[in-house]
Amino acid sequence: MATIKEVAALAGVTPTTVTNVLRDRGRVGDATRERVLKVVAAQGYRPNLNARALVERRAPTIALMLGCITNPFYPEFTLQANNAARRHGRFLLVCNTDYEPDGGTRFLADVAGSLSDGILVANNGDLRIDELKAIQATGTPVVISIWEFPDDPPGVPCVAFDSHKAGFIAADHLLELGHHRIGALIGSPKNGIHGGRYQGFRDALRARKVKHVLADARFCSDSFQSGFDAALDLLSAHPDLTALFVSNDLPALGALNAAASLGLNVPDDISIVSVTDIELASQSRPSLTTVAIPTAEMAEQSVELLLKLIANAPDVPPVVRTADPVLVKRASTAPVRKS
Amino acid sequence: MATIKEVAALAGVTPTTVTNVLRDRGRVGDATRERVLKVVAAQGYRPNLNARALVERRAPTIALMLGCITNPFYPEFTLQANNAARRHGRFLLVCNTDYEPDGGTRFLADVAGSLSDGILVANNGDLRIDELKAIQATGTPVVISIWEFPDDPPGVPCVAFDSHKAGFIAADHLLELGHHRIGALIGSPKNGIHGGRYQGFRDALRARKVKHVLADARFCSDSFQSGFDAALDLLSAHPDLTALFVSNDLPALGALNAAASLGLNVPDDISIVSVTDIELASQSRPSLTTVAIPTAEMAEQSVELLLKLIANAPDVPPVVRTADPVLVKRASTAPVRKS
DNA sequence: CTGTTAGCGCTTTCAG
DNA sequence: CTGAAAGCGCTAACAG
After folding, report:
1. Is residue B272 part of a domain?
2. Which residue in A88, A151, B67, B210 has the fewest CB atoms around it within 10 Å?
3. Which residue on chain A is closest to B84 by alpha carbon?
4. H/E element, B246
């Protein structure tokens, strides 16, 4: 790899001039510029980004910490974040933390120390806020990317969507269809990451004076298999349920399969609605009615917020609110059957 | 962020000693070591990896270039590659190239120039081998991670699995079940990335003297929707087909849905087998019989091969062959019905 | 065992 | 308009 020195020598100038040409800095003579550019092209010279980072005290990458890249929501998010980062001339360092022995603490510190100028943290419901604050304190900005509680900020800058509304909209859709025996499958503990969605669901029922008891709910983890198991359990225990609210697409897809296993037709025997709208939601059979959250917007806003923080911009808001979630009607919900 | 100088000052030593302590270079007195470690802990000091990379002429990351992270095979591969990289003390820089204006050429050059010590390229069937060679020529090792033709190496070090055998095994499974009217859905051009799988399929039929004509094949792209469309077309055109060989899981899942749309029961009316075994293959309804390729092994071997190349190890093989693909019987295939 | 010196490749004052 | 000099934070010789 050619260095700037070699390029400078070949062009008969000093490194300073090469930099000035490449970075479009001070005025360089047209002839000199030509000459330098010719050598740069001939040598295929590319500046060493590490060296540049060192002197500029600014890394070329931002990091994205996420729990598990194989959960299909994250690749979709990652893609958008990557694109946004690229648009701003940055590289995205994707950090999968699930398999780190210490849950990613060390990983985070290494990355934040030097490799990356800032950290995007995808909320997986298991955040260590104090650690994030410690990182912040060292001077590396941190943004939580997918915060579910816009009115209850975590004390770290974040991008939040209205999870309560998402749950509300989903439930309301079922109510509109005439359902009133509705089960709930929540992909987190009751007051965990999907707690806002669940609360929205309950508030929608209450608004229409439909009762919800804890016996009609199951709390599981955010996976296909877990949703399958929980749905099997719930639907067996309460055969009178005509609809299911699931807090996330992945367990909802599991629930879809569970219903089929029980010989229940979706949506004729049981309607299923969930939240998120990952790509798979449109590919299942039946396709999944779900409340889409603004994934792309969150990714973009997160990157932008982080870059503002890095640039030390004034008046950076502690919480960026995204657009509201929106119902995507597909084939897994239908009016309740008259019995 | 504290620097090594500050730490050294606080501990009453020079930066050299701090380095020696931190890198376990020996030759440091116990008392001094203690003292340094205490300051390091107190300051939460972490070395600047960029500065280290600069002086060591060795970057802390390796890059993984891939077409589209949202194709579910890649997150699975990425996870394994990430874990392997981490085991070797490296960070994995994930580079999505599909949305780069120039197909990733510039991206590649930037990353290879300095950010990463080596490049892993996930084969998406659209490789620019000459560009990869050019990168290699600048001194940055390149490894192609998922090569399909072990006997036809690309001229760049690679990890290859036996795609021919994968196709052969899949076809053989259908033949064993008594099928002889078998359609083929190939997720690439005829001699494209899935060409080996297709050839294996045809060779298996020929070995059993079962005819295959091009009219029974469709070539599509490697996506759910594309598989859906192609299957719809193929199955409508040839209602006598009793089985389908699909070259990849993603289009196979589309085919599964297409069959359902046509009112065909899988596997009673039509058997479907494919190749890869992504996680979704076990979550579809019916679950997908498929020939598993050694994804995790490829990821690990790729990382190891790349690191050997980076370390300038002697006798590095130009092609690493993985274990053979293996049939995973699930619910999408069944014996042909007597007619 | 510990310190001194030099330099990785680049950019940024500041002179000329 | 161009160059000389200094230094980003770290590590590797080589002294002592």
Report:
1. yes
2. A151
3. A99
4. strand B243-246
Q: Is residue B339 assigned to a domain?
A: no
Residues A40 and A113 in one domain: no
Q: Domains in chain B: how many in total?
A: 3
Q: Determine the protein residue whose CA lies at the shortest distance from the C1' of C11.
A: A55
* pLDDT, tens digit (0-9, with 9 covering 90-100), for B287-331: 999 999 999 999 999 999 999 999 989 899 999 999 999 999 999
Measured CA to CA in angstroms, residue B174 lies from A42, A221, B235 at distances of: 56, 37, 17
Same domain, B307 and B158: yes
Does A10 fall in a domain?
A: yes
Distance in angstroms: CA B29, C1' C2: 9
Specify if A109 maps to a domain.
yes
In sequence order, what E strands does chain A have?
61-66, 91-96, 116-121, 142-147, 158-160, 182-186, 217-219, 243-246, 271-276, 289-292, 319-321, 326-328
Of A49, A224, A279, the CB nearest to B110: A49
pLDDT tens per residue across span B60-97: 999 999 999 999 999 999 999 999 999 998 999 999 99
pLDDT of residue B325: 98
Backbone φ, ψ for residue A335 (5° rounding): -55, 145
For A86-126, what is each residue's pLDDT tens digit?
999 899 999 999 988 888 888 898 899 889 999 999 998 88
Domain with B300, as residue range(s), is 56-162+296-325
Question: What does the pLDDT read at residue A338?
Answer: 66
d(CA A202, CA A187): 15
Which residues of A fall within a CB distance of 8 Å from B53?
50
Same domain for B202 and B141: no
Integer distance in angstroms from CA A278 to C1' C11?
A: 45
Cβ(B327)–Cβ(B275) below 8 Å:
no
**In the structure encoding, which two tokens stand for residue A271, read together?**
């309607």
Residues B198 and B278 in one domain: yes
Do residues B329 and B289 make contact, with C-beta atoms less than 8 angstroms apart?
A: yes
Question: Do A313 and A289 share a structural domain?
Answer: no
Query: For chain B, what is the largest distance between any 2 Cα atoms, rounded to a whole number of angstroms?
Result: 90
Show the tokens assigned to A323: 């657009």
